[in-house]
Specification:
This protein is mainly alpha-helical. The chain has a single domain, classed as Four Helix Bundle (Hemerythrin (Met), subunit A). 78% of the residues lie in helices and 0% in strands. The longest helix is centred in the middle third of the chain and has 30 residues.
C-alpha cells in the first residue's frame, strides 16, 4: 500500500512541476508549486521523516510561497493595474491535485495509526539541529544571504520610480 501511495504522490509532484511550465498566469504557477512542495512533504512523511515533512510544509509551502505570492501581486499591481483576477477555471488543476494528496494523507493516517515512537523519530529533531548548527552552518548562512539578496532584488525591481 505504501508503494502505491508513494508512486501516486511522486506522479503528482512531477505533474505539478510540469504544470508550472505550462500555465501562463504566475499565480497559477505558484499554486502548482505549492502542490509540488506538498507532494514532496508527503513523500518525506512516507519515508519516515515526519519532521522534514512538517518543515517542508511550514517553511516552503507556507512562508516562502506567501512571499512569492506577495511579490507576484506587488509586481502585477505596479505593472498592470487593470488586469482582471485570474479565472477560477485555472484553479481546478491545483485543487484536484491537492484533493488527491489530502485523501492520500487521510488514508495513511486512518489505515496506519500512529505507531510507538521509535528511536529514529525521537532522535530526528536533535540530529537536524546538530546538522544545521554543526557541519552545515556555513551552508545555512549562505542560503540565508541568498534569500536576502533575492528579496532585495525583487524589491528593487518592483520599486515605483525607476530611472
Amino acid at each position: 500500500m505504501y508503494e502505491v501511495i508513494f508512486y501516486l504522490t511522486a506522479a503528482i509532484a512531477v505533474l505539478a512541476a510540469a504544470a508550472i511550465l505550462k500555465v501562463t498566469h504566475p499565480v497559477h504557477a505558484a499554486l502548482y508549486l505549492v502542490i509540488s512542495l506538498l507532494a514532496l512533504a508527503l513523500i518525506f512523511f512516507l519515508l519516515g521523516a515526519p519532521l522534514l515533512a512538517a518543515l517542508q510544509v511550514m517553511i516552503y509551502a507556507g512562508a516562502i510561497m506567501v512571499l512569492f505570492l506577495f511579490l507576484i501581486m506587488v509586481m502585477n499591481l505596479r505593472s498592470e493595474r487593470n488586469q482582471s483576477l485570474p479565472l477560477p477555471s485555472g484553479w481546478k488543476g491545483p485543487a484536484f491535485l491537492a484533493l488527491i494528496l489530502w485523501l492520500e494523507l487521510l488514508l495513511l493516517l486512518n489505515r496506519y495509526p500512529a505507531e510507538e515512537t521509535n528511536e529514529n523519530t525521537a532522535i530526528e529533531p536533535k540530529a537536524v539541529g546538530h546538522a544545521l548548527f554543526g557541519p552545515y552552518l556555513v551552508l545555512v548562512e549562505a542560503a540565508a544571504v541568498l534569500l536576502l539578496a533575492a528579496l532585495i532584488a525583487a524589491l528593487y525591481l518592483s520599486r515605483k520610480g525607476r530611472s
